[in-house]
Every structure is written in C-alpha cells, then in structure tokens.
Amino acid sequence: MKGLNGWMRVLEVSQAAVLSTLLTELDRITAADDSSGMQLAEVILKDASLTSNILRVSNSVLYNPSGVPVTTVSRAVINIGFKNIRSVCLSLKVLETVLKERPSPVLVSMLAKTLHGASQAKALCDDLSPTKREEVFVASLLSHLAELLVLGSDENEVKVMNKDVNSESTNDEKNRAAEKRLGVSITRLSKTLMKQWRIEGLVNTVLAKPSEPERMIEAVFLGDEISRAALIGWDSLEFQAVMKRVADFKEISLDDAKQAIITTADDAAKMIKQFGHGILTEYIPTSKHKVVRSKAKSIEDEKKLEPNSEVQLKILQELTELMMSKFNINAVFKTILKGIHNGVGIERVTLVIFDKSHQKLVAKYVLGAGTEKWGERFVVRYERSLSGFLYNLFEKDQAIWVGSSEHKSVAQYLTSEYQGITGQDDFFIAPLSAQNKRVGVIYADMGVSSRPLNKNYFSGFSQFIQQAKFALNILANK
C-alpha cells in the first residue's frame, strides 16, 4: 500500500511520462488554425516507435483502401486525417506504454474496454464537429490512463487488487478496491496525474464528475457505461438500461440505439486490430463475437432459472460441512444465497446487514441479474417504532412473504422504500438475529422475469433461512 505519493513516484519513473509531452505538442498543433501536416509529422518523427506504428496503421485497409503504399509520415497524416491523428497517436502510445511482455488478463480486458468506451463516446457525438469528437475520444481515453498504468505495473499490490476487480466492475467498485489495496482511489490518482503532467482540457472535467454534465462530458460517461454493459451481454438488464439512455441522448428509437452501439463496437474492434493488437478484440463484444462473461447473468439466463432439488440438497450438504469444519460465517452466507438462487430458483437475492450506527441496513452480498448496483442502492432505514416494517419483522422473528395474505400482519407496515430500490411488491424477507442481537435480513424476489412467487419457493427459502440462523447461533457461542 503506497498511497498517493508512492504511486505517483511509481508512475513518474515509468516511460509513460512521454505521453504528456506528446499530447501537449499534438494539442498545440491541432488547435492552431494555421498548422500543417508537416508540423504534425515532425512531432511524430521524434518518436521512432510511434513513427513505425503510424506508417503501419496508415497502410491498413481502414485508412488506405486503395492499397497504394504510404512511406512518409506526412502522407500518413493525410491518410489518417489531420483531426484523427491526435487520437490515433495517443491510442498507439498508450498501447505501447501499458502493454508489457506478459500483460495480465485484467489489464488486457480493461484496455480493450477503455478503447471501446472511447469509441462509443465519440460516436455519440456524431452531431458535433470532428474536432470536438476527437476531444471526447481523447478525454475518455485519458480518464482511464492512471488506472491502466497502475494495472500495467509489476507491483505486488496490483496483483492482489486484480483479484478484486475486472472489466465489468463499476468505477465505484474499482475505487473501493484501490483504496483498500493501493491506499488511494483511482479517481484521485487520475486527477493528480493530469495535474502533475499539466494535461488540460475535457479530461479534467470528466474526472471532476459534475452533477449536471454538458453533452460532451455526458457522452464520455455514457460511452464508459456502454462498454461495461456490453461485456455483461447485449441481452442483459444493464445493456437494456444503457440502450434507453442512448436512445434518449440521441433522440432515436431503442432499435436504432442498439444498432448504433453494436456498429460502433464492430468499428472499434476493427480499429484496434489495425493498431496491431488483435488480442484486445477478444475482449470487445461485437455483432459476431460474444465475450465470455465473468459474473452477471443475462435476462434469458434468469428466465430459465428453475427450482432444482438436487442442487438444493448438494448446497445444504455443503453448508453442513462448512459449519461443522472450518467455520467461516462469510462463506456460509455466500453459500446460503447460492442455495436460494441456484437451488430454490429465486432470481435475485441479497444479504442486508446493519451498519455500525444500527440505524440502517446495507447490502453485503448480492446474487442475480440486475443486482450489481444493489451494493450501493440497497440501503434501508431501521425505525424503532411500533409502525416500523423492520421493527415488526424482527418482533415476528420469522421469514415472511410480502404479497401473501398469510403475512399481512407484518406486510401492512411496508413503505414504498423497498419498491423504490427493487421495483417489487412481491418478495420474501427474513430477519437474522443471534442472542437477541439484530444482524440483518435476507431478501429475495423474481424481479427479472416477474414470475409469481409460490408456496414451494417460500418453503425452499425458509429452509435456507433456518440454516442461516443455525450458523449465527454457532458463531454467537464461539
């Protein structure tokens, strides 16, 4: 754990600092109205590896469909385009700087996602000038530069952090992992890097995360979300949500929004392949390629979720072994959620526990499609009053089925708080206590397919709740 100053020293001694000089010179030339392709060529020629890469890219089918050989950098600038050269140079230099002999899978996937997100952000601004579109691409790419440089280092802290994050992780999840493992958040490190390298422009506004972003900034945020949701799947809840945002942003239909996103993904994969790093395209979902997902399930996966008595029995046996041998309450709770989800067949399930103040409950573990943000959103107040829902739930001290006539005595106190988080008014919920000390609740619903709950589901749910209570009693007596 090096903290902000320690990690800045790590980045300062890397070859990445040349990006600052290159970007400054490119900015100066491309911003001037009287600049020429020859001036750009002179900047590129100062860097031997960049020169060879620019010549290779300019001879690709993407930029040279005629096939006439390009042998000079000045001609390469013309082929690629004066306004495109900045983003192409930066992309090539980032690839060169970040990728080592044996880059980790996390780094490769994050780099692919970053380039994909920048391409999506640029495409969202097709109604703006070419210059502004390039600014959006560059800002998007630079906003992830510190993260990529850290992931590309050989430091031990990074190897540990790689176990906590992947390309589907949200920015908040990555920041929490970095604070825990590195001693500084990715966002803070990014802001400091831009300031120390004197990189100005749109990227600094992106990193400031304004509450009401202008169109170009919003495009960067949205492009980043598109690249993450696409990894989860074109048919996932996340992608459906982001697709609607794109439709609203561009004022087009949902079908047109989906087609535009997938077309841009295809174009991004082609561009990256021309950059000479074909391996990255394996991490970009396209119309013809689906990335193997690491965690969340799609809507179709969840609609196929059915009760499985064999799985239930197997997980119950697993629980018995966990509680009788090397007891670990966290492993027990994760297994219980797995049993409710995969065994009982309930689509979404979470363990929600009291915080230190004991005035609210927050999600600790979640499982199922559409629950990825419950870690941040699933927060409910605990009101110690005779009309409080949770107060009455703990007084009853048993699993209840909100939506069933048999449990109206507790369900009548329910407020709109839960429906605001989950969108459901038909769900199971059970209190967890140990020696009269309230611990939390387990919540479960069918919020993906909206299939009705029934007594068989409730029976299976209740069975795993009994295991949870048994585990808490073991823990309390240790």
Under the CATH scheme, which class of the largest domain?
A: Mainly Alpha
Give the count of helical stretches.
24
Radius of gyration: 26 Å
Strand content: 5-15%
Termini gap: 33 Å
Counting DSSP E segments of at least 2 residues, the number of strands comes to 6
The amount of helix comes to 55-70%
The low-confidence parts are 294-301
Oligomeric state of shown chains: single chain
Q: Could you give the order of strands across the largest sheet?
A: 3-2-1-6-5-4
Q: Mean pLDDT, as a whole number?
A: 87
Brief overview:
The chain has a 6-stranded antiparallel sheet with strand order 3-2-1-6-5-4, with helices on both faces. The protein has 2 domains: 3-283, Orthogonal Bundle (Hypothetical protein af1432), CATH 1.10.3210; 303-477, 2-Layer Sandwich (Beta-Lactamase), CATH 3.30.450.40. The chain has helices at 3-12, 18-31, 37-45, 48-58, 73-80, 85-98, 105-124, 130-143, 145-151, 156-161, 171-181, 186-196, 202-208, 215-232, 237-250, 254-274, 299-303, 309-324, 329-344, 374-377, 389-396, 408-411, 417-422, 455-477; strands at residues 348-354, 360-367, 379-381, 400-402, 427-434, 437-445.
